[in-house]
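Q: I have 431 residues here and want to know how they pack in 3D. Can you give me a structure?
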Amino acid sequence: MDYTDTLDYLFSRLPMFQRIGPAAYKDNLDNTLLLGNYYNNPHRMFKTIHVAGTNGKGSVSHMLAAVLQSAGYKTGLYTSPHLSDFRERIRINGEMISTDDVMEWVEDFREKNEEWGIEPSFFELTVAMAFDYFARQQVDIAVVEVGLGGRLDSTNIITPEVSVITNIGMDHTALLGDTIEKISFEKAGIIKAGIPVVVGTTQQETMKVFNEAAALKLAPLFFADREYSVDYALSDMEGNQLLSVRKDGQTLFPQLKLDLKGMYQQKNLPAVLKTVELLRQMDWEISDEHLLNGLANAKRMTGLQGRWQILGYNPLLVCDTVHNAEGMSEVVKQIMQTPFERLHFVIGIVSDKDAGKLLSLLPDSAEYYFTRADIPRAMDEKELARLAGQFNLHGTVYSSVEKAFNVARNRAGANDMVFVGGSNFVVAEIL
């Protein structure tokens, strides 16, 4: 079995949420626990940080990993979904797992599973692969991003140093619940007995849920944005953000450099800062120099892609994996603060999202290029255009992301902006 065969097995023969949606979702941890037992519970062999949330959990995970790497710790990073390469999901010190390691692990599993008889989902098997790889490579710590929800997510067998929950929004409502409170309950499922919890964004609807969940587990609870405030100062010559950071009213860093360019990262940073503070209290050796270096080089050190990623200039080409209303609201703010003559917006979404809520946030002054990613979950581009018309959003329809992007880029003038978003899978196809 070569690497192509291995990927075919993972992507085509296992239920995969990213492709087929809720049909691949498992509402229990049975397979994950079985796999853990069969591989001698590798998740118990290294320290972890667990990160959940609706928006921002990927960015927070990468920033934390970069800081830990900068401090000299051998750092695993598990994230999802991938954009260009399956191996993006599993990294150590920024380096992706090798193709040989993936092939060998999957082949070994398939042979052993003739006896075990487990029928895992794509995500369950990928989590097992990551934890086993981190254990065998003897990482000091791994930053583990929740895939979906928290309580029933396959990653939720770890006992972390710190649990982190970023902001909560209305996403995956068919699986997690149709209110912010219900979704928060699922995210709060990562809270463990006695383990400190960092909530990145204080939201009135979620406070009671998190307070009650933490109290039941005797877990110290911290709302990071109540302690740390982050404001934009200016940008350097490379476009990196220089941020003013204050804690309890006192300036900690007048110009903290962050190489992640999305303005919404200012809302993610307090969770990172509070988590680092707690790790220091546990005797993890992380100096200010480590912190500043990791944040200044987070993208380079961890390989993060798809967050306000600039692909080119003249015209300005930007992509972002934003895929729900809460995230799109932040992205639209940044778009409208970016200088351009005309805005060209390439958009595709998946059919199980609240398309109307997302579309209602978009500027009606843009030229739209409605398209669909090459996955079964993608909303039909004609249906997307029809819905968009109800919000006075108009443009043309394209059967592939590549066609839509190429037309938008060719039509755009040197002073225009081309933005690509609406789905992880749309961004993946142009990367």
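Q: Anything worth noting?
A: Residues 329 and 361 are 6 Å apart (CA to CA). The longest strand covers residues 250-258.
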